[in-house]
UniProtKB/TrEMBL annotation:
One of its GO terms (cellular component) is ATP-binding cassette (ABC) transporter complex. Keywords: Membrane, Transmembrane, Transmembrane helix. It is found in: Membrane. This is Abc transporter, permease protein. Residues 7-203 form the ABC-2 type transporter transmembrane domain. Pfam families: ABC2_membrane. It is a multi-pass membrane protein. GO terms for molecular function: ABC-type transporter activity. The chain crosses the membrane at residues 21-37, 57-79, 100-126, 138-157, 169-187, 223-242. Its main location: membrane. The lineage of its organism: Bacteria, Bacillati, Bacillota, Bacilli, Lactobacillales. The keyword Hydrolase does not apply. Coiled coil: none annotated.
Length: 253
């Protein structure tokens, strides 16, 4: 257990404390979007509806920040571990391989927690949004749990083992996913066929769960089941590909 905690401590320092890209990209980009669409580009929104819009868009930017951190940061970090041979160093420790990934998943969840709290503070201090501590905490907690399937997507992308391929997959997945799931603008603005696709995404399902908590509504079990199915599907695929790559390496040797 002490070795596992030591590994978590090392990963915390190198992935979060020394990772300037996290603060500049995963946090600042969603904050800029939030300030732009909740404070500047609000012409035409009635004053009575402005607070609701600011709160709803805050939820979207929290999830968008976690989307960036869970896929792009995860994929790039794990790829850097491989290119710098840090993963080989980890393999030489007495810890089993699953703890290598578990220690990183915990750090990535912490990274998402930090970004979520940061964006919430912007909403509180800039737009004077007021919610009970229980509601704020529940929204953040559910969001962090709901990002686990996204983290597995990031792990899956990192298995491409090629920087160009990983960057291409990140761009092909993250930004279209943010658009069609309604994080950048309401999903109702898109064509019906695109709405049908967007409603199947984990980010749309997570957004609806958070919106239900925000407005005191009953959470639709359909969205909870959807996230669970995403987790099982992506987790199983990642496990199978990891085992296949390991078998292939052993076969080559």
């Amino acid at each position: 257990m002490n070795r596992f905690i030591y590994q978590i401590n090392i990963n915390f320092k190198r992935i979060i404390l020394r990772n300037k890209r996290f603060f500049l990209f995963d946090m600042m980009l969603p904050i800029v979007f939030y300030l732009l669409y909740s404070k500047v580009l609000v012409t035409g929104i009635p004053q009575t509806d402005l607070k609701t819009w600011q709160m709803n868009y805050l939820i979207s930017m929290i999830i968008y920040s976690c989307l960036l951190g869970s896929i792009i940061t995860v994929a790039n970090t794990l790829l850097e571990d491989k290119t710098s041979h840090f993963d080989i160093l980890s393999q030489l420790t007495p810890l089993p391989r699953w703890q290598y990934y578990l220690s990183r998943i915990l750090i990535f969840l912490l990274l998402n927690l930090i970004s979520s709290i940061g964006i919430c503070l912007v909403g509180i201090f800039v737009n004077n949004l007021t919610l009970s501590i229980t509601t704020w905490s529940l929204i953040i907690l559910i969001t962090i749990i709901g990002t686990v399937p996204l983290i597995f997507i990031g792990i899956l992308i990192s298995l491409a083992n090629n920087p160009a391929t990983v960057n291409m997959l990140n761009n092909l997945l993250v930004f279209p996913l943010a658009m069609i799931s309604g994080l950048w603008w309401p999903i109702t603005m898109m064509p019906k066929w695109l709405q049908s696709i967007g409603k199947l995404t984990p980010t749309f399902e997570l957004s609806n769960i958070d919106q239900s908590i925000l407005h005191g509504k009953i959470i639709d079990n359909q969205y909870v089941l959807g996230i669970i199915l995403w987790l099982v599907a992506i987790g199983t695929t990642t496990l199978l590909i990891t085992k296949y790559q390991k078998y292939k390496e052993l076969d080559i040797e």
